[in-house]
Amino acid sequence: MNTKVTIAGVELKNPVMTASGTFGSGQEFSEMTDLNKLGAVVTKGVSSVPWPGNPTPRIAEVYGGMLNAIGLQNPGIDVFIERDIPFLQDYSCKKIVNVCGKTVEEYLAVVERLNDQPIDMMEINVSCPNVKEGALAFGQDARVLEDVTKKIKAVAKKPIIMKLSPNVTNIKEMGLAAEAGGANAVSLINTLMGMKIDINRKKFVLANKTGGFSGPAVKPVAVRMVYDVAHTVKIPVIGMGGIATAEDAIEFMMAGATAISVGTMNFVDPETTSKIADGIEQFMKDKGIEDINDIIGCVE
After folding, report:
1. Residues contacting 67, CB < 8 A, separation 6+
2. Which residue range forms the structural domain that includes residue 134?
3. Rounded distance, CA 150 to CA 267, Å?
4. What is the pLDDT of residue 234?
5. Exposed, middle or buried, 31 (CB in 10 Å: 0-12/13-18/19+)?
6. What DSSP designation does 115 have?
7. Helix H or strand E encompassing 12
8. Which candidate, 37, 156, 22, places its Cα nearest to that of 93?
9. Measured in whole angstroms, how far is the alpha carbon of residue 43 from the centre of its chain?
């Protein structure tokens, strides 16, 4: 039985990945789940210099999920290269580094630093709704997205995955823009823009007022967008958004995703990714499916 999938020439032992920003670089989760069982670990966003993130409070529970306005807090590329990449080398999963920036130059600086590191791919975050400069604007205008993709692709020595924002009118257009810019793959969806108000205090719950909405409630939107993009572009699509079970993961793959990422549910159960990997294998056994690639895009 084959559970391997290939993205941009990189072979993953299975299609299960972690969604950036929900798994750190795996250090904390390695004590609770086996990283060797995963297809890939996608790290938290890394910037050219340390980012403090947004003021607190910056996380809130809501019906069907959560809001976050972390603001891509991270210690910067120097610490990441010194601390996180060596840690990941002890595991057989593929290593995908999420790259963030507020200007094109900042993205390029991180990409160039990562070029000679022992990683497999880079995921470019042009879709975070909590960073006031840069990221979201890059991900909401097709011409800008194509241009920034071209500039990153021109300097990147590793395959690049462009992470798409759902906060757009036409997701197909964004997928085509990333493809036209030379992206090796696209990942979607990032979080939806949301808000929560404390009616007793008459205040916004998040200091940032708005935050990214994620969790099981966004899944139907995510499946639809993955289907739309997968049936529009010729490059691989990585699906995410509310995945909690193997059944959820398979649904995304049937919609056209080559691989899937698990995010919010890591906070609920740190073993979610391992359980999904096992569950996909069990589904294949139960249905007599020999090759996982036969599932991808099987629903037209």
Report:
1. 59, 60, 194, 195, 196, 205, 206, 211, 212, 213
2. 5-50+72-192+213-294
3. 35
4. 98
5. exposed
6. T
7. strand 10-12
8. 37
9. 9
- Is 98 within 8 Å of 163 (Cβ atoms)? yes
Residue 61 lies in a domain: no
Q: Is residue 63 part of a domain?
A: no
In a domain, 205, yes or no: no
The reply to whether 128 belongs to the active site is yes
Count CA within 13 A, CB hemisphere, residue 289. Answer: 17
Its pTM stands at 0.95
Q: Is residue 204 part of a domain?
A: no
Task: Find the length of the chain.
Answer: 300
pLDDT tens string, the chain, 300 residues long: the values are: 999 999 999 999 999 999 999 999 999 899 999 999 999 999 999 999 999 999 999 999 999 999 999 998 999 999 999 999 999 999 999 999 999 998 889 999 999 999 999 999 999 998 765 555 455 567 788 998 999 999 999 999 999 999 999 999 999 999 999 999 999 999 999 999 999 999 999 999 999 999 999 999 999 999 999 999 999 999 999 999 999 999 999 999 999 999 999 999 999 999 999 999 999 999 999 999 999 999 999 998
The number of domains in the chain is 1
Q: Hey, what's the torsion of the CAs at 289, 292, 296, 300, to 10 degrees?
A: -10
CA distance 234 to 232: 7
Catalytic residue among 93, 100, 128, 298: 128
The rounded distance, in Å, linking the Cα atoms of 255 and 226 is 7
**C-alpha torsion angle, residues 126, 130, 131, 133 (rounded to 10):** 90
Q: What is the CATH number of the domain that holds 170?
A: 3.20.20.70
